[in-house]
Design brief:
InterPro entries: Kinase-like_dom_sf, Leu-rich_rpt, LRR_dom_sf, PRK1-6/SRF4-like, Prot_kinase_dom, Protein_kinase_ATP_BS, Ser-Thr/Tyr_kinase_cat_dom
Oligomer: single chain
Domain Protein kinase: 338-591
CATH superfamily of the largest domain: Ribonuclease Inhibitor
Low-confidence stretches: 13-24, 241-250, 282-301, 307-317, 488-497
Number of domains: 3
Number of helices: 18
GO molecular function: ATP binding; protein serine/threonine kinase activity
CATH architecture of the largest domain: Alpha-Beta Horseshoe
Signal peptide: 1-21
Keywords: ATP-binding, Leucine-rich repeat, Membrane, Nucleotide-binding, Repeat, Signal, Transmembrane, Transmembrane helix
Number of strands: 20
Shape: globular
Strand order of the largest sheet: 1-2-3-4-6-8-10
Largest sheet: 7 strands, mixed
Length: 604
C-alpha cells in the first residue's frame, strides 16, 4: 500500500512538470490532495473513496465533499463531515485554494491545534470544526479573517483565553460550548447574533457577561461557574475599579486634589447656606413657574405642558398602569406632573417627551392631540392593545385619558430609531449591513402581522407606521412604537373598515422596506420614494436603487431584488392589490432564510 502511494506521488510530480500551461490550477489540486492526506492520517482508503487526485479536476471531475463556483470553476466549499478523519489540519495547504469560502470538518476525530496559518484563507466566511479532538488555544490569527461570519469550535478540548473575535465585525455565529476555555468573554456585537448562533456554555469563563449578552438565553452561558450577570441568575459583585482609579489619581495629583476638595467644601457650604435662607422664596418661585408652564402649551422644556392645572389636579388618580413584570406598578399621574421633561419632537398626531423620574428612570410620554375619541373608547382601545403583545411591538407602561388630555407612557429606548440609522447616526453595537437590515425587516413584519391578527377585527391598526416609530431596544431588536394611537373606529368605518387600515399599514411597511434597501430616509411625502423607485425599475436600472453601502458591503443582489419585489407589492397604488401582513411577513422571512443559507456556501 505504501509503495502504491509513493508511485502515485511520483506520477503526480511528473504530471506537474508536463502540464506547465495549467501549473497554478494543478498546484492548488496538489495542495488539496496533500491537505486531505494529512487530515486523514494518510488513510488511502478515505482518499480513494472521496476521489481526490491531483490528476483530476475537483470541479469538472467531481471530488466528493467539494463544491465549486460554476462561473469561475474554482473550489469554494469543502465539506468532510463524519468520515472518521484522524489526522491534523494543514492550513498551509488548505489555504492554497484562493476562492475557498467555507470549510466543514464536523464530527470527526481530528487532533492537534488550529494552525496560525488559517489566516491565509482570507476569503473564508464559514469554518465548522465542532465535534473533534482538537486542543490547545484558539490562535490569535483567527481575528485576521475579516470575512468570517460563522465559527464553530464546539465539543473539542480547546483551552486558554479567547482571542478578541469581536474585531470581526461581520461575525454572526460563534459556537464554543463544551471546551475548557477560560478568561473573560470578549465584547462581541451581540446585536449581530441570532439566539441559536451563540453558545459558550460548559467552559471555564469568568467575570461579567458583556453588554448586550442579556438578549440571549441563559443556555448560551450556563456551565461557567465564574460567569455573572444577565441572562444568568447570578448577579455580579460591585466593581472596585472606580475606587482604585480614584486612589491612583490621588497619589499622582495629591496637591491638586487637596486644593480641589477644599474649594468643593467651600462651595457646598455656601450652597447649603443659600438653600436654608431662600427655601421659602424658591418654593414660591417654583409655584409661579409651574403655573406659567401649565398655561403655555409651547414650552415642554421643564415639564410636560398640560392642558390646565385644574384638569391635572382632578386627574391625579386617573393614570392607568398596565401591570406586567419589570414595569413601575406604582407610577402616579402627579409623578409625571412633577418630573422634568425634554421635548423629543412634535408631529401631526401629537408631541413626544422624555420624562426623567425621581429615581432616574427615563420614560417616553406621548401626548395625543384630540382625535375625536371619547375617554371611555380610548381606555377600551388601550386595554385591548395591551392584551395583544409581541416582542417586536413596544408595550405601553401606562396611559391617562380625560376630556383635556390623552397620554401614553412607554419605557424610553435610548438607542434611538431606525430613522437615526438611516440618517447615518450609527451605533457601535450594530453594523447597519445587509443581514441587520433583513433582521429589522423581519422583526417589524412579524410584529405588525401579529397585531393585525389580534386587533383588525376591532378596527385597530397602527395608523402612523414610519421609520421614526421603529425603535431599537437595548439589544438592537426593532420594536414598533405608538401602535394604535391614531385611527379611531369612526375613521375606520368611513375608510372601509379594517381592510382599509390594514392596507394603509402594509403601504407604510413597504416604504420602510424601500428605506432599508435604498438607504434614503423619507423626509416629507412617503409616496415620493415609491415613485422614484418605480421609475428607476421601469427603466431597467434596478441596481441603481440599492444603497451603495449594501452593494460595496457584498450584499446579495438576488436577495435585495427579492426584497424589493416584496416592497413594490406593498406600495401598489391599489389598496386591494396589496398583500396581507401575514403574507408579507412570510415573504420577508423566506428572503431572510434563503440569504442565511446562501451565505453559508456563496463567495464573500
Amino acid at each position: 500500500m505504501e509503495w502504491s502511494s509513493t508511485l502515485s506521488w511520483l506520477m503526480s510530480l511528473l504530471l506537474l512538470l508536463i502540464c506547465s500551461g495549467n501549473s497554478e490550477e494543478y498546484a492548488v489540486r496538489l495542495s488539496l490532495v496533500g491537505f486531505l492526506q494529512v487530515l486523514s492520517g494518510n488513510d488511502t482508503g478515505i482518499i480513494e473513496k472521496l476521489g481526490w487526485s491531483a490528476a483530476t479536476d475537483p470541479c469538472t471531475d467531481g471530488w466528493n465533499g467539494v463544491t465549486c463556483n460554476n462561473r469561475t470553476s474554482s473550489v469554494y466549499k469543502i465539506k468532510l463531515e463524519e468520515l472518521g478523519l484522524r489526522g491534523t489540519i494543514d492550513a498551509g495547504r488548505l489555504c492554497q485554494a484562493p476562492s475557498l469560502a467555507a470549510v466543514s470538518l464536523l464530527h470527526n476525530a481530528i487532533r492537534g491545534e488550529i494552525p496560525p496559518e488559517i489566516s491565509d484563507c482570507g476569503r473564508l466566511t464559514h469554518l465548522y470544526l465542532g465535534g473533534n479532538s482538537l486542543a490547545g488555544s484558539l490562535p490569535p490569527s483567527l481575528t485576521l479573517l475579516g470575512n468570517l461570519k460563522v465559527l464553530d469550535v464546539s465539543d473539542n478540548d480547546f483551552s486558554g483565553e479567547l482571542p478578541d473575535l469581536a474585531k470581526i465585525s461581520g461575525l454572526v455565529g460563534f459556537l464554543a460550548q463544551n471546551n475548557r476555555l477560560h478568561g473573560t468573554i470578549p465584547s462581541f456585537r451581540f446585536g449581530n447574533f441570532d439566539r441559536r448562533r451563540f453558545n459558550v456554555s460548559n467552559n471555564l469563563f469568568a467575570g461579567p457577561i458583556p453588554p448586550g449578552g442579556d438578549r440571549l438565553d441563559q443556555t448560551s452561558f450556563i456551565g461557567n461557574p465564574g460567569l455573572c450577570g444577565k441572562p444568568l441568575p447570578v448577579a455580579c459583585p460591585p466593581s472596585p475599579s472606580k475606587e482604585d482609579h480614584k486612589s491612583l489619581k490621588l497619589s499622582r495629583e495629591k496637591a491638586i486634589m487637596f486644593s480641589g476638595y477644599i474649594a468643593l467644601g467651600l462651595v457646598l457650604f455656601l450652597f447649603v447656606t443659600y438653600k436654608l435662607i431662600h427655601r421659602k422664596k424658591r418654593t414660591k418661585h417654583r409655584k409661579i413657574a409651574d403655573e406659567k408652564i401649565a398655561s403655555d402649551g409651547s414650552s415642554g422644556k421643564s415639564s410636560i405642558p398640560w392642558s390646565s392645572t385644574e384638569a391635572s389636579a382632578t386627574a391625579t388618580s386617573s393614570l392607568i398602569v398596565l401591570k406586567r413584570p419589570g414595569t413601575m406598578t406604582d407610577l402616579k399621574f402627579d409623578d409625571l406632573l412633577k418630573a422634568p421633561a425634554e421635548s423629543l419632537g412634535r408631529g401631526r398626531n401629537g408631541s413626544l417627551y422624555k420624562v426623567t423620574m425621581a429615581d432616574g428612570t427615563s420614560l417616553a410620554v406621548k401626548r395625543i392631540r384630540d382625535c375625536g375619541t371619547s375617554a371611555a373608547e380610548f381606555r377600551r382601545r388601550m386595554e385591548r392593545m395591551d392584551m395583544a403583545r409581541h416582542p417586536n411591538v413596544l408595550p405601553a407602561v401606562a396611559f391617562h385619558c380625560s376630556t383635556q388630555e390623552k397620554l401614553v407612557v412607554y419605557e424610553y429606548q435610548r438607542n434611538g430609531s431606525l430613522l437615526s440609522l438611516l440618517q447615518g447616526r450609527q451605533l457601535d453595537c450594530v453594523a447597519f449591513d445587509w443581514s441587520y437590515r433583513l433582521r429589522v425587516a423581519a422583526g417589524v413584519a412579524e410584529g405588525l402581522a401579529a397585531m393585525h391578527r389580534e386587533l383588525l377585527a376591532d378596527g385597530i391598526g397602527h395608523g402612523n407606521l414610519k421609520s421614526s416609530n421603529i425603535l431599537l431596544t437595548n439589544v438592537m431588536d426593532p420594536c414598533i412604537s405608538e401602535y394604535g394611537l391614531v385611527a379611531d373606529s369612526r375613521s375606520v368605518e368611513k375608510a372601509g373598515g379594517g381592510s382599509a387600515v390594514a392596507a394603509a399599514d402594509v403601504h407604510a411597511f413597504g416604504i420602510i422596506l424601500l428605506e432599508l434597501l435604498t438607504g434614503k430616509p423619507v423626509r416629507n411625502e412617503p409616496s415620493e420614494l415609491a415613485r422614484w423607485v418605480n421609475s428607476v425599475v421601469r427603466e431597467e436600472w434596478t441596481v441603481e436603487v440599492f444603497d451603495e453601502a449594501l452593494v460595496s458591503g457584498g450584499a446579495s443582489e438576488g436577495g435585495m431584488v427579492q426584497l424589493l419585489q416584496v416592497a413594490l407589492r406593498c406600495v401598489h397604488p391599489s389598496p386591494a392589490a396589496r398583500p396581507s401582513m401575514d403574507h408579507v411577513a412570510a415573504m420577508v422571512n423566506t428572503v431572510r432564510e434563503e440569504e442565511d443559507e446562501r451565505s453559508e456556501v456563496s463567495e464573500p
